[in-house]
Design a protein that fits this description.
The protein has a single domain (1-81, 92-214), classed as Jelly Rolls. Strand 1 (110-113) and strand 2 form a beta hairpin. The protein contains 6 helices and 11 strands. Helix 1 (9-18) crosses helix 3 and helix 2 (23-35) packs across helix 3 (37-55). It starts with 8 loop residues before the first helix and ends with a helix. It has a 6-stranded antiparallel beta sheet, with helices on one face. A 3-stranded antiparallel beta sheet has the order 7-6-9, with no helix packed on it. It has helices spanning 9-18, 23-35, 37-55, 65-74, 94-100, 205-213, and strands at 110-113, 116-124, 127-134, 143-145, 149-155, 158-160, 163-165, 170-173, 182-183, 189-195, 199-201. By secondary structure, it is of the alpha+beta class. It is globular and about 70 Å long.
Length: 214
C-alpha cells in the first residue's frame, strides 16, 4: 500500500512482517490480529521465514560496534502495557482504540447518505483513513477503486460478491474489484477503512440513485 500494491490478505500480512506498511494499515493489521488469533500463526510463520532468510544473508560490518552495543545494553526494558478494565467491553481492539483515542460509542459520526455514516480521520502517511457505520440491511453504492482499500469489520457484518465479512475480517479491494457491499440485518456494520487512492462509483444511474436514497 502506497509504496507496494496489496491485493490479498497474504500480501498484506507479508508487508506487515516486512515493516513496510504505513501507520494506518499497520494499525488495521494489528487490530485484525487481536480479533483473529488464527492469523497470528500465519504472521509467526512469516516472521520465522524472514528470520531464516536473514540468517542466510552475508554479514555486513557494523560501524562503531562498541557504541551500538552500549546503547542496546543500556536501553530500558519496556514495561507491560496497562490495560483498563473496561477494555473487555470495547468494540474497538486496543490497537485501534489507541490510534483514534475513543471507542465506537464515542465516534462523532457524520451522515453521508441515508443509512451510512462516516468519521473522516483525514490523510495519514499517504492514506485516506476513516471509520464507517452502515445501517442494518443497507446497501452501499457499487464502486471500484483506483488503488488499494483495506476495510476491517469491527462490529456487525457485510457481504459482497466475493464473500461475507464479520468481526475481525479484512476486505482487500483494488481496481480489479467492483463491489456493492450489503450490511447484514440485525445490527449496524462498523468498520475501519484505509485507502491509498479514491474510489469510483459504478453501476447504472438508476441503481446508484436507488442505493443513495436507500
Amino acid at each position: 500500500m502506497v509504496r507496494e500494491h496489496i491485493d490479498t490478505i497474504d500480501s498484506l500480512l507479508a508487508r506487515y512482517v516486512a515493516g513496510t506498511l504505513p501507520t494506518p494499515a499497520r494499525v488495521l493489521v494489528e487490530a485484525h490480529l487481536e480479533l483473529k488469533p488464527q492469523s497470528r500463526i500465519k504472521v509467526a510463520n512469516l516472521e520465522a521465514m524472514a528470520g531464516l532468510e536473514l540468517m542466510a544473508t552475508d554479514p555486513v560490518p557494523l560501524d562503531d560496534r562498541d557504541a551500538m552495543l552500549a546503547r542496546v545494553l543500556g536501553s530500558k526494558v519496556p514495561e507491560a502495557p496497562v490495560v483498563a478494565r473496561s477494555a473487555a467491553t470495547r468494540v474497538f481492539p486496543k490497537a485501534l482504540y489507541d490510534f483514534v483515542g475513543f471507542d465506537a460509542g464515542d465516534v462523532p459520526w457524520r451522515t453521508r447518505m441515508p443509512g451510512f455514516k462516516e468519521y473522516d480521520l483525514g490523510d495519514i502517511e499517504g492514506c485516506h483513513v476513516n471509520l464507517f457505520w452502515i445501517k442494518p440491511g443497507r446497501t452501499v453504492p457499487a464502486h471500484t477503486h483506483e488503488g488499494s482499500e483495506l476495510s476491517l469489520v469491527l462490529d456487525g457484518a457485510f457481504s459482497d460478491a466475493r464473500g461475507h465479512y464479520g468481526r475481525g475480517d479484512i476486505s482487500v479491494a483494488d481496481d480489479s474489484v467492483d463491489h456493492r457491499p450489503h450490511a447484514d440485518s440485525g445490527r449496524p456494520c462498523i468498520g475501519f477503512a484505509v485507502m491509498d487512492a479514491p474510489l469510483k462509483l459504478t453501476g447504472s444511474f438508476r441503481q446508484l440513485i436507488g442505493d443513495i436514497i436507500g
